[in-house]
Amino acid sequence: MAMNGALGGLVGITAGCSVVTPWAACIIGIIAGWVYIGFSKFLIKMKIDDAVDAIPVHFANGMWGVIAVGLFAEPDLMATAG
């Protein structure tokens, strides 16, 4: 579970890695860990079998990463990223 949480943090920051500051990247990663735990428990409750927890890691944290870009993106970095 710890490795999937860490991997979820990496997936969460991937969408906005070029447009967020380091402090925001840490916040995004921490929230992504909690997103992973919540979505994993949701799948268990819904009785959806995902043996390696790929759906919470990649789907749920991918969605969080896209939302996080809108919340944490810095305008100056967006201009540089093009």
Characterization of this structure:
The protein has 82 residues and is an all-alpha fold. The protein is 77% helix and 0% strand. The chain has helices at residues 2-14, 22-45, 54-72, 75-81. Helix 1 packs across helix 2 and helix 2 packs antiparallel against helix 3 (54-72). 29% of the residues are buried. The mean pLDDT is 95.
Query: Which percent range fits the helix content?
Result: over 70%
Task: Tell how many strands the DSSP assignment holds.
Answer: 0
The biggest sheet amounts to: none
Low-confidence stretches: none
Defining traits:
0% strand; 82 residues; 4 helices
In short:
The chain has 82 residues and is mainly α. It has helices at 2-14, 22-45, 54-72, 75-81.
Please write out the topology:
Layout: H1 2-14, H2 22-45, H3 54-72, H4 75-81
Helix pairs in contact: 1-2, 1-3, 2-3
